[in-house]
Design goal:
The protein folds into two domains: about 40-120, Sandwich (Immunoglobulin-like), CATH 2.60.40; about 135-210, no CATH class. Helices cover about 25% and strands about 35% of the residues. It is built from four helices and eleven strands. Strands 1, 2, 3 and 6 form a four-stranded antiparallel beta sheet that branches. It has a four-stranded antiparallel beta sheet with strand order 5-4-7-8, with no helix packed on it. A hairpin with a 5-residue loop joins strand 10 and strand 11 (about 200-210). It starts with a helix and ends in a 6-residue tail after the last strand.
């Protein structure tokens, strides 16, 4: 009986060793068919303004995309306005809100997409003479056309508006203040303070309404 058990042990050893070897070989073979890609990142240089064409150029770069076919897209809202295979764009119109950039890296077995937002597509402005709070207050209260249209050369595009001491839903943009005055929601406004950039352009306005109607 003891002799028989020893023989069975030897048989089991001879059977298990080849099975383990085959299993290891299968795992190694599977590893050869698994291709790992990197984690691509999308980087954008600062937009460059061209005085002659009054448009911008932009260079976009990505890494960890070796062996992939790449395409880049410049997106405004939901629309693609430009595409590039090398990440270089030119003739980009000025746009206050900026653009989204999308990179698509495509391998045979994988496609990776990266997107980012790029700002600073504003036309550089020359220095202007500083406008005082009293001067701006007079323009607003007279419902000046340049304030209504957002074309006054002393204000940056999208100037920040801060409204104090209002019991109503306050306007978010300066042209809306003109609408409030015209509709007699406010009789007028008092401009409390202004902030400027290096070119004396007004970047922020703090005001309060005068003669505000009771909230309905």
């Amino acid at each position: 009986m003891l002799i028989q058990e020893k023989m069975n042990t030897k048989v089991r050893k001879h059977i298990l060793i080849p099975i383990a070897t085959v299993a290891f070989g299968m795992l190694s073979a599977c590893g050869n068919f698994t291709r790992e890609h990197g984690n691509p990142t999308l980087n954008c240089e600062a937009p460059v303004y061209d005085d002659v064409t009054q448009t911008f150029s932009l260079v976009v770069m990505s890494d960890s995309t070796s062996g992939a076919a790449q395409t880049f897209a410049l997106i405004k809202g939901d629309s693609i306005i430009m595409e590039s295979n090398d990440g270089k764009f030119c003739g980009i119109p000025a746009f206050e809100e900026g653009y989204r950039v999308r990179m698509e890296a495509k391998w045979k077995d994988t496609t990776i997409v990266r997107t980012t937002h790029v700002a600073n597509f504003l036309v550089p402005c020359d220095s202007v003479e500083k406008m005082s709070a009293d001067e701006l207050e007079q323009l607003i209260n007279s419902c000046d056309r340049s304030i209504r249209r957002g074309s006054n050369k002393h204000l940056i595009q999208g100037v920040r508006l801060i409204v104090n001491d209002s019991r109503m839903v306050t306007p978010q943009m300066l042209p809306d203040v003109i609408t409030f005055i015209e509709n007699e929601v406010w009789q007028s406004v008092e401009v409390i303070s202004l902030e400027y950039d290096d070119n004396n352009l007004i970047t922020s306005i703090t005001l309060r309404p005068i003669g505000e109607q009771a909230e309905i």
